[in-house]
Amino acid sequence: MSRQYIDCREFPSTMDCSLAMSADNDKELLEAAVQHAVAVHGHTDTPDLRKQLTSLFKPGTPPLTQAPAKTA
After folding, report:
1. Could you report the per-residue pLDDT of 12-39, keeping only the tens digit for each?
2. How remote is the C-alpha of 36 from its chain's centroid?
3. With a threshold of 0.85, does the pTM exceed it?
4. What's the angle, vertex CA 41, arms to CA 60 and CA 14, rounded to 5?
5. CA–CA gap between residue 12 and residue 33 (Å, rounded)
6. d(CA 25, CA 30)
7. Pick from 57, 60, 3: which is nearest to 30 by CA?
8. I need a labelling partner for 58 at 20 to 30 A (CA). Which of 8, 11, 25, 43 fits?
9. What are phi and psi of 7, to 5 degrees?
10. Measured on CA atoms in the order 31, 8, 47, 52, is the torsion positive or negative?
């Protein structure tokens, strides 16, 4: 399986989270993303959260720089 990532900088938040994470497999990335979403963003670990996070995975590695997402 190829490397995948998820990047909080792509999503609006009141805290302007700048964390990006990547892994070589879905399971490892999902576990890290869930832990972060729960501990930092206050989400609850549910099957729906896991499904949403998995749908946001992108192939490759996060870019070194990215403009923060704008809050609505």
Report:
1. 778 889 999 999 999 999 999 999 999 9
2. 8
3. no
4. 95
5. 16
6. 9
7. 57
8. 43
9. -135, 115
10. negative
User: How many residues are given for the chain?
Assistant: 72
Residue 11: what residue type?
F
Structure tokens of 27? Answer: 């399971």
Measure the CA–CA gap between 67 and 39, rounded to whole angstroms: 24
Task: In whole angstroms, give the CA distance from residue 70 to residue 2.
Answer: 30
Q: Which amino acid is at 7?
A: D
Task: Give SS3 for 59.
Answer: strand
* Rounded CA separation 34/40 (Å): 10
Residue at token pair 């996060």: 62
